[in-house]
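ok trying again, last paste got cut off:
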Amino acid sequence: MSMLLEVKALEAGYGPLTVLHEVSFSVAPGERVCLLGRNGVGKSTTLKSVMNLTQYRAGSVYWQGHDITRLSTVERARRGIGYVPQTRDVFPSLTVEENLIAGLRNRPRSEVQKAYELFPRLYERRNNGGQALSGGEQQMLSVARTLLGEPQLLLLDEPLEGLAPIICQELMHAFDKLSREQHVAIVLVEQKVQEALKFAQRALVLDHGAVVYESGTAELINDSTILDRYIAVAE
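nice, full thing came through this time. structure:
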């Protein structure tokens, strides 16, 4: 099977600091992958590096077999890579619907209905300003705006952080629906380890900026040595 995304021996960081050390992994079309590890090991930096939001030292990034190492963040998004950062980027002075319209990129306004179908809660809040939304609703809006770009790959950086259990369930249900019905590949960084392992098909474990373990999630769930050594499993 040809890979959607391939990261090859990537070294990257910020300013003089190198965070990632020869990180390599691939993502197949429609695949669900989670990146796990303790805080500060390079998980978020890995997602940012896929989007060219860090400084590369060495290595390469391929998208559908083409070298995109030198492509800008905007061009990568145009090619089909969607990124939802931890910051829950919404326009606070715009309503929910106006936020969604801003993400349409010249597509018909009717496309907004897709966001409401995925997140019915947003339809109920469609006339509310971004600043009036709860943290969970802002996260839904951030994800929905990204999806209006019709990505083939969605990078999610700790989407469940600080959210109520009911909101976490709604978000994970939406991610599952995207994967099953639209065949969107998803790379998930998440501190709620059990949720990540239940969702993903394959797991990568990072430590000190390097991939130290890779397996199917069913195998990792039963590997107490790896879980204890590299992953904070308390939730």
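cool. The mean pLDDT is 95. The two ends are 36 Å apart (CA to CA).
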